[in-house]
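Continuing the batch. This is chain 6 of the set; chains 1 through 5 are on the previous pages. Same settings as before, nothing changed between runs. Recording input and output for traceability.
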Amino acid sequence: METTGGAAAEQPQIVDVRSVVEAVSAAGGDDAFSDAPLYEVESLCMRCNENGVTRLLLTVIPHFRKILLAAFECPHCGERNNEVQFAGELQPRGCHYRLEISSGDRKMLNRQVVKSESAAIKIPELDFEIPPEAQRGSLSTVEGVLVRAADELEALQEERRKVDSQTADAIDQFLIKLRACALGESSFTFMLDDPSGNSFIENLFAPSPDPSLTIKFYERTPEQQAALGYLVDSSQTGESGDVASLGANNGLDQMQREPHGSVGARAGRQAIAQGNSVEIAEALFRYSAPEEVMTFPSTCGACAANCECRMFVTNIPYFQEVIVMASSCDSCGYRNSELKPGGSIPPRGKKITVHVKNVKDLSRDVIKSDTAGVKIPELDLELTSGTLGGVVTTIEGLITKISESLERVHGFTFGDSLDDNKRIKWQGFRTRLNKLLSLEEPWTLIIDDALANSFVAPATDNIKDDHQLSFEEYERSWEQNEELGLNDMDTTSADGAYNPQDSAPNDETDV
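Output for chain 6:
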């Protein structure tokens, strides 16, 4: 092994690729990444075919991701490029960022962008898309991404002009529009979609909501899982449908026979019901275990390995019937749990307001669906629907999850590039958020759910006696129904199937 200079202890070492891979695999926690040395690997320059040097650094962006920075430089022809790859795990869900940029606002173009190798970038106004294979993983800004795309398109213009001058002229006109967007002279929408969930766009107003930036998280499709390099069952992609349905039927028979726990819950519930009054029995059954748990095969959302998902249906007092689903993967250890509403879609939305005044209020059970938004007026904090997904927790746990989520999403701005004003603003907000749990002053929690699938448990036996908890129902707007997909939903055929007496051939117009 050779060194790059005389002072071997001070300069990076030239190593082979195998040594670097072994070092990456051996790096376990964040401390290992933060103390990792700078590696240099001799690499072939694709421009002059001489040997250059690729520098590799394992590091951690605070509260964001473990990343591998790679920078290549050729001393013969001056070729340089850099790349960022993610050395951590695949995120449970994909992410979609939408940034509205107005003309003349140069500050918006300076937002930092982390683009993984699986992310695609779109500008709908220009009908322009940068597919994942066009640009590799990078750490840049909005302006840098657009300038790089324009430079790569312009690099081959002379060759295009010789072959097809008409196409080259059209690209010239497009480059004028693209560079106008990069200079902030035109308004446009910057959209970043990443199935791996490892991309990021800076929020300039963090920790407050950004009016120009929207973030949505979604479940990956089997096709996206396969594109990320994970093994996907053929039954998930629609192949061998008959075999899959047959297996599902056999699995259903097996599900119904599986009891929950070693002691039969059904016998226990019957004993309680026989020995107590109806009111006491219902109180004891409030959060009791279900009579049986159904198990069906599933796929891990992190590594796509086969695993089992357990599901049961229970009824929450003062709320509704809900479906609890939980899965764990033996291959990678990933665990996931979610709660789905049961029954029909409520006709109106619901807003829940809780005035938190004492420690007992922090222990209230909370069900927040993935369609619910959260507001804390005392902090001017507002989280849109889908930010935290569907969770079952307490008020204290919800505040903790909000703090962790904000640090994970906006934690990238804790780096060296963050100015002092933003740092003080963020640290002050985090301090105020933590003070909510110490109850130095009363505060208000508002959960607004357009589908009325969220719930906060009362602190009294009778919900009418809880004066700190209030529920408000409201009519959904057309925009809310459109976002939820309810405007185009047609249930007439299902209504006829479930209500045959209503569709009896009494009407002469029936065919």
